[in-house]
Amino acid sequence: MSGLKKLLPRVNKICILLYFGGIVGFLLLSHEGIRENCYFSENALLPGLVDSKFSASDDQIHNINLDILDPNSEVTDELEKFMLRGGLEVYRQKFTFQEKFVGNARIQNGTNIYGIVRAPRSASTECIVINIPILNNKHNFAMGIVLALAKEMRKQFYWAKDVIFLFSEHGSFGARAWLNAYHGIVSYPVSANQLPARAGSIQSAFTVHMEEDAVSFINLLVEGYNGQLPNLDLFNVAVRLIKIHGMAVSVNYEFVPRQSSAMDDIKSHLGATLKMMKKQVTGTSSGNHGEFIRHGIEAITLQTVYNPQWGNAGFVRLGRVIEGISRSLNNLLERFHQSFFFYILPSTDNYISIGMYMPPLGLMLAAAAIKALSLILEANYVNSEETDKNEETKKDSETKESVEDIDDILKDMDSDYANKENDNKNSEAPPLQQILITMVTSHMMGFLVFYAPVFTETWSQMFNCPQDISITLLLVTVHIAGMFIITSYRLTLEGGKSLYVVSLLHQGILFGVVAIINFSLGMFLAVCYVLPTILLQPGYMKFNLLRKFVAFLVSPLSIAALICLYTCNGNPATVMSEFVNFHVTVYEQSQTQQSWLFDFIALLLYPLWLQFWAITSSEGEILT
Amino acid sequence: MYEICALFVGIGLRMWLFRMPRVLLWISSRPEIETPLTSWGRLIEGEALMRNSQSYQNKHSYHGSTLLLALISYLNLNAPSSVEILFIASDVISAVALYLFAQKFLRKELKSQKECKEKLFKGVSSILIKPEHVSKVPTIICALYMCNPFSLATCISKSSVTFNNLFLALFLLSAVQGSIWQMAFYVALSTYETLYPVQLLLATGLCAWKYQEKPSTLKICYLKSLACFTFWMALILTLSFLCEPTTSSLLSHYKFILSAPDQTPNVGVFWYFFTEVFDHFHTFFICVFQINVLIYSIPMSIKLKSHPVFLVFMLIAITGIFKSYPSVGDASLWLCLLPLWSHTFSYLRYPSVTGAMLLTSTILCPVMWHMWINAHSANANFYFAATLAYTTALVLITTDTAMAYLNWHVRIREGLKPCVAGTSEKAVLRLMN
User: Fold this and answer.
1) For a tag site, which of A301, A479, A503, B288 has the least CB within 10 Å?
2) In Å, what is the CA distance from B133 to each residue of B103, B112, B128, B129, B207?
3) Positive or negative, the Cα torsion across B351, B353, B359, B362?
4) Which among B125, B360, B367 has the least Cβ separation from residue A517?
5) Which residue of B has its CA nearest to A294?
C-alpha cells in the first residue's frame, strides 16, 4: 500500500506516459515484426487451382459494351435482352428511395435487373452474387465482361452454387433494395417491390466497378458500414487471383512497398493503415459491398483504376479474375468463418489482427482508468488520515463517550425529520446528487441534439436560409446552448471531483465498447480525448481558463471545425461551406445509410463531453 | 415525499416506455432480459396453443407455471390492456413493500442496537446505524426499484420475473413482521413459480424466531414454517392441478428448471457450459451446477443465524446469480436492496472496481450480442465472456457485501481498529471468520 501511496503524486506522469506509450505502440503496429502475412485459413477455397475457361476476347467484350451503350434504349432493357439471349433467367425489381433529407427531399425511382445462372450440380440452396452497379452518369464497363462470362457459365457443368448477376441502380440504394426484398425485410428510406425469383442463401458476393474501358490495376474496397469488415479470406482470394492473372492490386490505392529501409517500410505501411482507418471512422461503406456485409454476407468491391502511364491490362484479365473468384467461392463448403473478421490492412499482403491492435488502445484507456482510480485512492487516504487525526484528538475524552453518543443519536429517532431535510437543502448537495443532476442534464441535451434536425424546415423558413445552413445552425445552437445550461448548475469542488472520476470511467467504457464495434472510431476518439481529459482535473482556479480552453478544443463542434480546416487545406474561403457540408453529410449518412456516427455523437459523445465541460467550471481551490 | 415522487416517476417511465414500440421490440428480444422460463413471447404462445388446441399438454414452447398462464390468458381474453397495468402495479406494490420493509427493518435494527449498547465497543459511534439511515434508506430503495434500468426493462418486457420479485418483496415485508403464515405463503408462491426460493424456508424459521412477537424456540419456528409452507404449497399445487388436470404439466415445469434443456444464451453460467460439455457428463454437471445454487444456504444459515434478513438477502442474490435461467430482473431486486447495508459500506474493499465491472459487462452484453448475431463477426465466446464478467461482478458484489457486513459486526464489538491479542499488530479480517 505504501508503494501505491508513493506513486500517487506521480500519477499524471504515469498516465501521460501510458497515453504516449499507446500512440507509439499503435504507430509500431505496421512494423514488419508485428504485422502478419496474410494466409488462407479456409482450405476449401483453392484459389487459382483451376484453368481459366474464359474465352471471350477483348473485342467481343468491347462490342457488348457498345451494344449496351446504345443511346436509343435504356441500359436495363439492353441488359435484359442480352441476358435472355444468353439463356439466363432474368427478372426486374422496381424500388423507390429518398436520397436527400436536407434540401430537396424527394422520392426517386430505380430499377434493379438480375439474371440467375442455375447451378447444374445442385438444388438452388446456395448462391453467389456478382453485383455490377449501373452508374448514373457513367458507364460501368464491367457489364460487358460479366455478360460474356454469364453466357459461358450457362454452358459449364461444374457450378455447384447458383450465380446471380445483379445490375443495381443508384449506388447502395439499389443493392439495399434488392437485398431487403431477398431477405424479406424493410428498411427506411428504401422501399422495394417483391422479387419475382430467388436463388438459395447468399454465401458471398463481390462488386465490380469499372468506370473506364481500360484497366491498369485493381483497387480493393473493404470497409463496410459502422466498422464492419468482410472476412479476411475473401480479401485474400481477391488479392491472390488478381496477382495470378498478372495485374497489380492495391488497397486504398496503396501497393506493397518495394524493399527499402525499415523506416520507409513502416512509413508506407502506416500510411495505408491510416487511410483505411480514416474511411472506417465515418461509419459508411466505401462501396456496394457494405450492404451485403450488413446482411452477414461476406463481400468486397473490385474497383478498376486506369492510368495511361501504367498501360492497359485489358478486359480479358479482369474477366479471368472475376471467373476465378467465382470459382473459388463455388468451392466453399460452408460460409466464411475461419479467418479474421477484426483486422486492419497495412498492405494487400499483411494484416494486423485484433490481438495486436487492441493493446495500444488498452494502454490509452488504461491511462484514464488509472487516473480515476488514483483519485479514488487519494480520497480514501485523505479520509483515513482525517479519521486517524480525529481519533487522536478524541482519545483523552474517550471515557463513557460511546454510551452518551449513542443516546444522543437515538434521541432523534422519533423526532420529525422534515426539519433536518430542510437544513440539508441549504447546505451543499452531496456529490452523488450533483453527479446525477449533471449526467441527466447532459444526456437530455444529447437527446435535444439528436432530435434537433427535425426542426430544420421550420428554421430555414424562420431565418430565410437554405436548409443545409439551417441544420448546421440548429446543431451548433443546441451544442452551445447545452454548454450554458450545464454550467448554470454550479458544481462544488467535491462534486466536480466526483463527477470527474465518474466521467473518466464513463469515457473509458464508452471508447472501449466503441472500439469493439469500430476500432478506428474508438482509436480516433481515444487519441483526441484521453490526454485532454487527464489534464482536466478540477483544482486550482488559476488554471481554470486554460482548462476551459483545452476542454473546448475537444468539443464535438471544435473537432468538426478542425477536420474542416484540415480538409480544405487552410483555404479560408471554403471553410464555412465545408463546415456546413460536414454537418449535412454526417446527418444524411445517418438517415440514408444507417451509419451510427450521428447518433453516437449526439446521444453518447456529446453528453460525455458536456460532463467534462461542467467539470471545468466547477468551483476550484484558490491558490494561496 | 420523495418516495411518492419516485413512484410516480417510475410509473410514468414505464407507461412512456410501453408506448415506444421500437424500444419494446428491442428489449423483448434481449437474451439478458428474456429467458425461456420467463419470456412474455413464450407465455403468449403457450396461451395461444392452449386456446386453440384445447390440449393442456402442448407445452413445448411455454415452460412457466400453469396458474400464471391461466391468469394471463384470462386477462388477455377479457381485458388486454389490463396486462400492462398488472405489470406496472406489481412493480409498484414491490417498491412499496420494499419501502415498508426497509423502514421496519432498520427501525428494529436501531432498536436492537440501542438495547445492547453495553456490548458495543467504545468509540464506535461513527459507524453505528443512525436515525438518518432509517429516514433515507427506504426512500432510496424505493426510488432505485422504481427507476433502475434493470427493473424497468424487466417490467416493460413483461417478463414473469416481475411477479417473482413481487413475491420476494412481500416475503421480506412479512419476514420483518415475523408472521409465519404470510412468509410461508410468499415462499410457496415463489417456489411454485421458480423453485429455487424453496431454500428461503431456512430463513423463514430464523425470521420467525427473531421477529415474532411471542417468543418461541427455534425448533418450533422451523416446524411451524414447514407446516405452513406444506399447506400453502399443497393448496397452490391443487389449484394448479384443477386448472390443468395432468401431473405431467406440473412436473415438466420443474423438470425444465432443474435439467435446463434450453440452452438459449442468457446471462447465467449454464448455457455455454452445457453446449460445450459432452452429453456423457451432462447429468453429472447438471447436478453439480444445481447443487451450487442450493448448497450455500446451509452454511450461511448457520453463520447468519442471528441475521436472518441478511441471510434472505444473500440467498436471493445467490439464487439470482446461479439459477439455471437468470435474467437481469433477478439481480435488480437484490441490487436495489444494497443501500440497506449502507452503514457497512465503509468496509467494502473495492466498490469502485465491482461497480465499474458491473456497468461495463452490462453494456458489453448487447454489444457482443450485436457482434455475434447481427454483424456475424464475433462468436459465442465473445458473448459468454461478457456474461461471465457480469456474473463475476455480481459474485464479487455479494461477497464484498457479506464481508463488509461481518466486518462491521466485529468492529462494533471489538473497536474500530481491533488488535491481535497481546500485540499492537492490527488484526486483518478474512472472509472465513
Assistant:
1) B288
2) 9, 15, 10, 7, 22
3) negative
4) B367
5) B375
